[in-house]
Specification:
This protein is mainly alpha-helical. The protein folds into two domains: 39-251, no CATH class; 265-398, Glycosyltransferase, CATH 1.50.10.20. The protein is built from 19 helices and six strands. Strands 1-2 form a two-stranded antiparallel ribbon. It has a two-stranded antiparallel ribbon with strand order 3-4. Strands 5-6 form a two-stranded antiparallel ribbon. A hairpin with a 1-residue loop joins strand 3 (318-319) and strand 4. Helix 2 crosses helix 6 (95-113).
Amino acid sequence: MMEGVGSPAGGRTSGPCQLWLVLTLGHILGRSCRFLPLSVGAVKPEGWLRGTIRAWADGITGHLHEHRPRGHWRIWNVWDNRSYKDEHWFRVSWAAFEEQAYWADGLFQDAYLLDDARLKDIAGDLVDRILAGQAADGYIGEWPDRPYSNEGDLYTQSLLFLALMSYHSAIRDPRIVPSMQRAVHHIYANCKPLPDEQGELPVAWRGGSMGWASASHIIYPLLWLYSETGDQQLMDLAHLVYEAGQRCDGRYSSIQIERLLSAGDTTGGMHGVDVTEVLRIPALYYLYSGNVDDLNASVRGIEAVEKYHGLIHGAPVSDEQLTEPGAVVWTETCDQTTWSATKQTMFAITGDVEYADGVERILFNVCPGSRRPDGRAVQYYTVRVTTPCVCRPPVRPL
């Protein structure tokens, strides 16, 4: 969604998580950036766009926490379940933490785009609970009794960081940056992405949905946090994560420069969400490295996805893995938002309007096709012609 994109870059301003560090990091390191962001809520949606966001706020986004089981959907809330010691499945799985972090990011932005008092109250309460759950030593992940013991630990922390970045963009909450900084210092001290004697990374870096790729997504909030603080340790960790993504012995990596710069389909068979979420990382890292190969790796990787896996509605073919286009293939809903976010970031870095066109293509085509107009239902997979799928009356809210 193009909310937040403002005038050509010329000075520092607060901004949403998707674009803010592009300006600040580029300014600090002397790289050229084409556009600067505005803070969440600085630009108010109108017309169809406002009506669509309003429908989400009145529908799933604004009420999902009321319809999900207590243990599953309130997973980050310290008073509800981070002290759980029983053997519910979420004690060993990262999926619920991933889902609530994604939801929180959308909730926070909706609340301040619409200036909605009810959603602001929900958002503020959730942030209070998240921050209250941070351990005294700085660890903010899901397993305070056994940090970094789960493969999804750092991937899901990266998604939580994105949500907190959106909240901070909206109101400049003074607690957010110090909290994230302490959390990253704990990661640096206790779980660097360094291989052991067998060449394996610590288990917490292997996770997310398809291995290494999604764990590398934490580079994004690391760079944002560096742009806010100038803390060199944050850059040191980002560098270690990036270098680990270049090795990836025996595994695919969405940030592996040599692979992305090679000819042909460089992403086929990889997990769609991982690819669409982290293909922007090399370009963002370019703002630090100055190595044009990093920027070109993102450009070439995106071109490969479009060429070999793109559909007419703007999002790629992905029923988990990226596959070939066809008449009866579909797009996972997660890919819509991650692909849009990556193209927003690339537009800000390069100024290439094709990336902005790609965002609009997703927004006006596949997004409406995957959701009911009243915001009360969404389908997980979307094919190219889905009007009959989203216009049936719901049995109950999702």
